[in-house]
From TrEMBL:
<dbReference type="GO" id="GO:0043200">
    <property type="term" value="P:response to amino acid"/>
</dbReference>
<dbReference type="Pfam" id="PF01037">
    <property type="entry name" value="AsnC_trans_reg"/>
</dbReference>
<keyword id="KW-0804">Transcription</keyword>
<feature type="domain" description="HTH asnC-type">
    <location>
        <begin position="5"/>
        <end position="66"/>
    </location>
</feature>
<keyword id="KW-0238">DNA-binding</keyword>
<protein>
    <submittedName>
        <fullName>AsnC family transcriptional regulator</fullName>
    </submittedName>
</protein>
<dbReference type="InterPro" id="IPR019888">
    <property type="entry name" value="Tscrpt_reg_AsnC-like"/>
</dbReference>
<dbReference type="InterPro" id="IPR000485">
    <property type="entry name" value="AsnC-type_HTH_dom"/>
</dbReference>
<dbReference type="InterPro" id="IPR011991">
    <property type="entry name" value="ArsR-like_HTH"/>
</dbReference>
<dbReference type="InterPro" id="IPR019887">
    <property type="entry name" value="Tscrpt_reg_AsnC/Lrp_C"/>
</dbReference>
<dbReference type="GO" id="GO:0005829">
    <property type="term" value="C:cytosol"/>
</dbReference>
<dbReference type="GO" id="GO:0043565">
    <property type="term" value="F:sequence-specific DNA binding"/>
</dbReference>
<dbReference type="InterPro" id="IPR011008">
    <property type="entry name" value="Dimeric_a/b-barrel"/>
</dbReference>
<dbReference type="InterPro" id="IPR036390">
    <property type="entry name" value="WH_DNA-bd_sf"/>
</dbReference>
<dbReference type="InterPro" id="IPR019885">
    <property type="entry name" value="Tscrpt_reg_HTH_AsnC-type_CS"/>
</dbReference>
<dbReference type="Pfam" id="PF13412">
    <property type="entry name" value="HTH_24"/>
</dbReference>
<dbReference type="InterPro" id="IPR036388">
    <property type="entry name" value="WH-like_DNA-bd_sf"/>
</dbReference>
């Protein structure tokens, strides 16, 4: 069930999604409120789980990660034990930034950041050594056209 979020909450969230390091005074000025109500709303949204956490968004290339792969995983296994093993492996791998279970011909998609193709191969070899996978297709991202962590409000 969605938390109760009003228009002022959405304005505050929009500001936080752009820059969570802004001062409360800056946010309050931009959303047309004062500091204490803004602080109280942020606190309430944290407690309600609307705001999950605050993180730093790093530049992959600045960290030597030059290759982003989208990994399509198809499985012939649909038992709970297989899924648990697969999810445990995926969650442990730091190269996997996102993992989604899909409807359709592909069962899972992973977003994987690595240094280069050789590093991707090492990731792939480790993955298939830990869990049986029917088919894996890796798609190399040639250019990031849009990347955001901001949800549409």
């Amino acid at each position: 069930m969605a938390a109760q979020v009003d228009e002022l909450d959405r304005k505050i969230l929009a500001e936080l999604q752009v820059d969570a390091e802004q001062s409360l005074d800056e946010i309050a000025r931009k959303v047309g409120s004062s500091k204490t109500p803004v602080w109280n709303r942020i606190k309430r949204m944290r407690e309600a789980g609307v705001i999950k956490r605050t993180v730093a968004v790093c530049d992959p290339e600045g960290l030597g990660l030059e290759a982003c792969f989208f990994v399509l995983v198809r499985t012939s296994e649909h038992e709970l034990g297989w899924e648990k093993r697969f999810l445990d492996v995926v969650r442990r791998r730091p190269e996997v930034l996102e993992a989604h279970r899909l409807a359709g011909d592909v069962d899972y998609i992973l977003k994987v950041w690595v240094k280069n193709a050789r590093a991707y191969d090492a990731f792939y070899q480790a993955l298939i050594s830990e869990v049986k996978i029917y088919n894996v297709t890796a798609l190399l991202s040639m250019e990031e056209i849009k990347m955001t962590t901001a949800l549409p409000l």
